[in-house]
Amino acid sequence: MSTVHGLHSPAKRSRVFQHLRSLHAAVAILQETPSKVGKIPTLPCTSYSQWFHLCHTTSKIRGVSIAFKKSVPFTLSSSLSDPEGRFLFLKGTIANTVVSIAGLYAPNSNQAHFLERALRQFDLFQEDLCIVGGDFNVAIEPHLDSSSLKSHLSFQKLRSVKLALQSLGVRDAWPTLYPSLHDYTYFSTHHNSYQRLDYLFLSTPHLHLVSKARIGQFTVSDHAPVLVGLKIQTLPKRTYTWRLNELLLNNELFKQRITKVLISYFSENKSDSISPIILWEAHKAVVRGKFVGPMKLTHVRYCQAR
Q1: How far apart, in whole angstroms, are the C-alpha atoms of residue 12 and residue 4?
Q2: I need a labelling partner for 269 at 20 to 30 A (CA). Which of 39, 145, 284, 292 fits?
């Protein structure tokens, strides 16, 4: 979960997705992702096969995006978005688990009113495993989330936000593993203090799924990302089908090596005691092993050239 300050240019979009890949993010909730008015930005990264984008029709700041890596088998069943470009709700399944995700981007003023309204709407929308992430633009627990130990919101407004979260039945995922640790996601020059404004909440019955949590470094924006790992037991292991890179067959030196391997294999293993079917099937594994190394090297060179 991260705030990225716009996706207007191809260069910025490329930086954002390079950062997501470096974080190994399977699901990304992004805030401040406006693009050109009325247009969905072209993705520079094929690693994220599903991309849900919300932007305001006139604002150059508002916008929320949720991206799923292609290894995550997410199936969308319903969605709800804010006309003002402040929140995006998704509901669907990952394997056999029903998941509801909310991406929030609170304004710089009237945060309590916005969060109460958005959380109340999400409470009516959500089902089963509930994930709420975003830029709340307020330190909810000042004694823990602000280096100044203060908040610019009144006690009553902070209490109303906490009650809305409590009513939704979610808890802050990061302090679940580190209840006594202080860390921050933003430095406010106006208040001259570090603050934790970016949060990721998880439904209380599913807190046991949290395997790791940390606050990342300031890279693509002035907000640090919040990273939470979940163990969803029903998520199937991805299966890979080996495919031959046919470009290798254009390399004459490589073809000569493979020819020698095949001649050597059949001359050494052909025997009346070995079934021709077994001999043929076994040779596929031998040849595949000879292809793996060069294919890996080709892939590494391709990635370095990008």
Answers
A1: 9
A2: 292
